[in-house]
Amino acid sequence: MTDREIMDCAIHTFRCEARALSEIEEQINQEQLLAVVKEIASCSGRILVAGCGGAGMIARRAVQGFNNVDRSAFFLSPGDAPHGDYGKIRPGDVLILVSKSGKTEELFDMIPIAHKRGARVISITENASSPIARQSDQLLLLNSGEEACPYQILATSSAAVMSSVFDAIAICCMKIN
How many CB atoms lie under 10 A from the CB of residue 67? Predict the structure, then answer.
């Protein structure tokens, strides 16, 4: 690649992510966002956030944000949960599942356990008809549009949108109490 091609590639990525961020206000369902913020802000237990791959990294960052605004939160590893970590889920907790496709099996398997243990489940996804969305108590549907990746496999725009949405939720929770 030439220097110009490298710069064009970088600028394309910046523009895709900036476009996705600029469109959040129009595309997000305000009723869903309000319901999610209120559910998290009124949580009597802890906030557990789970995701795999890139969504897992966003989930970990969200945990840090919630803890920064005095909301007890931790990352619940979908890989470790079936091997003893389901015991971390308590009545009054809120489990937030982060998955662009809403089809991540490891996350879907967490839903009945969370419900059985008395936790509420929120899904944040781009697929309203997905198994995770359908089984959750609350849904926050996102739509980040096209990724910068030419193969649409590397989460770029969707990662920026999810991260920004978690920032907004944390700040709203901070201001509520």
Answer: 14
